[in-house]
Amino acid sequence: MNGDxxxxxxxxxxxxxxxxxxxxxxxxxxxxxxxxxxxxxLLGLQERLQNDARVAERPKxxxxxxxxxxxxxxxxxxxxxxxxxxxxxxxxxxxDDTNVLKAVRNSISEAAxxxxxxxxxxxxxGKRQGGKDPVRxxxxxxxxxxxxxxxxxNKPFRMLVHRSVHEDFWMRTTPGSLHHVFEERTFExxxxxxxxxxxxxxxxxxxxxxxxxxxxRD
Amino acid sequence: MFISPFAPDRWIDLWQLxxxxxxxxxxxxxxxxxxKTQAIVPVVAETCSVDSGERHKTTIxxxxxxxxxxxxxxxxxxxxxRDRMELNELRAAIAVEFIGDLAFPNGVDPHISLVxxxxxxxxxxxxxxxxxxxxxxxxERGTLALPKAIAQQIEGIMRVELAATRYLVISDSAExxxxxxxxxxxxxxxxxxASLHGPTPDLLTATLATLHGSGFDIVSSRLRFATYEHARxxxxxxxxxxxxxxxxxxxxxxxxxxxxxxxxxxISEEVSESTGHKLHLKYEGTVNSA
Lengths: 218, 290
Description:
Helix content of chain A is about 50%, strand content about 15%. Chain A is α/β, with parallel strands linked by helices.
């Protein structure tokens, strides 16, 4: 339901309540009863619209990405997610809390699923015994933060990881099956894998919430 | 053939708004002003005082293409893509704006409805998938002269000259449209009039079931109070019914006028016997030819 309509219902209801009180004071009980009928209708209307809005709402997918190195991938992922029936949210859209961490956590908490796109951000280089590591990268610290929140909130979770991102930033904390390692040319293929898995998990959870198992798809 | 008085670009988002207000001078002006704020364009409207002037009934066909709703009503593109749709937010907004003026006939809900004009919507969707554009035609003194291009299209589909084509025109007054069914030579559509003298539910149910059982398919029908011709002499017309039917007979037989008349007589007797009330089915002829 849009905000203007919500406000209009509240304002009208307040006017009617005031008028009903005045009618009661004047001893005009027929008018008071008529106004109360209209107030009841407005109360029911507000509830019906809120329920309808909940039903009409598409599930949200939170996409965690870096604007510096992952904006192009994010754009593709957003288009894909929309085709899969998700409304896309990210850590940059939310402005309802001045505390950024809280705003992001709220957004992830409202999401039906979480997708991270881990792209190379900071160059790192280390030495292994007997040789030198190839050049590897660290991801944006925000993606690691958001990933932690999604795991803590038990969200259906998938992660697209660029092959040049060092394993220490993702492999140690979550099962490997939840990660899809990609290169530039394989991004769309891996994105499809991740989205299909997220959608399937979302449907499983929806069916489970009403006590039904997931039907076989083969 | 689908005939509408409205230009095809309006068809996709036409909605019928019906409201009953407690009578008050200025209410229509306020309603039109409110609709304007919502970017709703009234296409045609009818208003009338009812209940001895205590209430005012308003019916408006609205072009809602420019209306943008919230998460429920959405915008034109989203609405156009949904087969079933209601404008719950707009209906609510009107109800809220006029909450003090709307009539509450059952003491619970106001008299307000907002329904998509489905005939035009479906026609617009079909039109969208066609290569040929719609063709505007002017009606002059009640006659609709088909443009040559349409006539040729019909002849191409029917494989018969337009002058020899048979057709059935059906008016849908609620949708404000006319539909023309062209009937190929190979297809027969029989016009039958039934006179129902007795309890309408019993006779209607038995007639429809027997026609179905005999393999007839209804193309169009109309139930109404008995015409003067079909009413029993001296009896109140409203106690009987005239039931017009346009029927496709079963394909298994080469039908003759005599053959059809005999079948309808037999059905009349069967229904009259099974219900104990008088039914008379009269074969009136086949569909008009052009």
